[in-house]
Amino acid sequence: MKPLSLHFLVSLSFWGLARGEILIPEPGGPYAVGYNTMKLVDESRIDPYDPGHGKRNVMMSLFYPVAREDCQQMCSINYMPPITATFEDGFAAELGLTLPNGTFASINWQSCCKVSHRGIQAMEKFPVVLFSPGLGGSRLLYSAMAQKLASAGYAVATMDHTYEGVVVEYPDGSYIVGWNQSYLEYLFDPAFPERVESVLDIRVQDAQFVLTQLGQLAVVKSLIPGATCAFNIGHSGFYGHSFGGATALAALARDHRLNGGLNLDGSQYGVNQDIHRPAMLFGRDDPHSHNRTNDATWAAVWDHMKGWRRELGLSHSQHTTFMDAPLLIKMAGLPDSDVIRGILGELDGARAFEIITKYVEAFMDFALKGRRSELFSGPSKAYPEIRVS
Ligand SMILES: *[C@@H]1O[C@H](CO)[C@@H](O)[C@H](O)[C@H]1NC(C)=O
Ligand SMILES: *[C@@H]1O[C@H](CO)[C@@H](O)[C@H](O)[C@H]1NC(C)=O
Ligand SMILES: *[C@@H]1O[C@H](CO)[C@@H](O)[C@H](O)[C@H]1NC(C)=O
């Protein structure tokens, strides 16, 4: 099953990154982007995966828009904290790859780290968008995408699903190592679909919990010091990659606070009821096509998508293209190789990143702000790589 190998592929894809700092470019949208992370503890749930039966917790990152004139200082921020970065390096080494130590630790991005009082007051007007990563993946491997969406005017909350992600690292430096490969294979055994449904169900509950928390002033104050209002969570969006994409549509079907859901290239589980709000499947066009003709789980969910619905296909992409990886590989200046093409497809990495984030933004603009876009009515001259149906 494809999602199982995702983490391996991602590690592999960074093999050969040159040493030295990589700075992800500022996304250049109308807003600068503020950032914080937080460990949220759900007092109402025992973590079913925790051998010690503790409360379920979720690590989240919040990327929030700041009007340019309200941003008083930009800072360079580590793409991932140190343990996670070492994990990503070391994991490749375990597989017998010589990834230079410090590769992931050398990636940085730019955030607005000092926001004026007026900028903080303006926060409540931005719709919330949730993000859930692929199985075994880290939310941090999607931060550039989240930052891009935030710069268009969304408060984007990316989350890890504890024990599923290869490692989840907390602000105090502690961390939880996720399930091993053989346990993942046990959970995703196609003969026992109820196991997958159960993992998905915990993810949906994680997402609903994060959304509820963003509607609490105390939580928003910890994330954005000086905030005087919580977010308006009754009109939110959700996108995700791979199993996270399945999570997004499953949550959309169940939670009326969500007004739109987008699945980036993930086989779908957990939708057994009709969805009446905007929903989109964003897969792959030729030559590595993934669509509702060749994925029965997409054909099934398509029939449940009774509101506005679209299926998109990005040509010359692969499953791992729908992450930050293509952009980072491009920025690292790696020469084209069969390995990279096998993982990321034949599209230019920066171009792939631009197209995917453009369509994600247009979808949220439609679902949450009611802005119609020509991009969804058929082929686009600006983006001929996309097939719309
Ligand atoms: C990375 O660091 C570890 C531990 O310090 C070391 O064992 C390993 O050889 C290093 N790998 C590379 C590629 O430098
Ligand atoms: C994998 O994880 C399972 C469940 O936690 C555990 O029972 C098993 O011993 C682990 N296997 C390996 C090879 O570490
Ligand atoms: C899915 O891809 C195949 C292969 O390119 C194509 O024949 C089929 O028409 C596509 N289906 C949709 C719904 O786009």
Explain how this protein is built.
The protein is α/β, with parallel strands linked by helices. The chain has one domain: Rossmann fold. 32% of the residues lie in helices and 24% in strands. The chain contains 12 helices and 14 strands. It has helices at 6-13, 82-94, 117-121, 143-150, 181-187, 193-214, 217-223, 243-254, 296-304, 325-331, 338-344, 349-369; strands at 22-23, 31-46, 55-67, 71-78, 107-115, 128-132, 155-159, 167-169, 175-177, 236-241, 258-264, 279-284, 309-314, 386-388. The strands form 3 sheets. Strands 2-3-7-6-10-11-12-13-14 form a 9-stranded mixed sheet, sandwiched between helices. A 3-stranded mixed sheet has the order 1-5-4. Strand 2 (31-46) and strand 3 form a beta hairpin. Mean pLDDT is 91; it is low at 1-19. Bound molecules: 2-acetamido-2-deoxy-beta-D-glucopyranose (3 copies). One 2-acetamido-2-deoxy-beta-D-glucopyranose (NAG) binds at residues 180, 182-183.
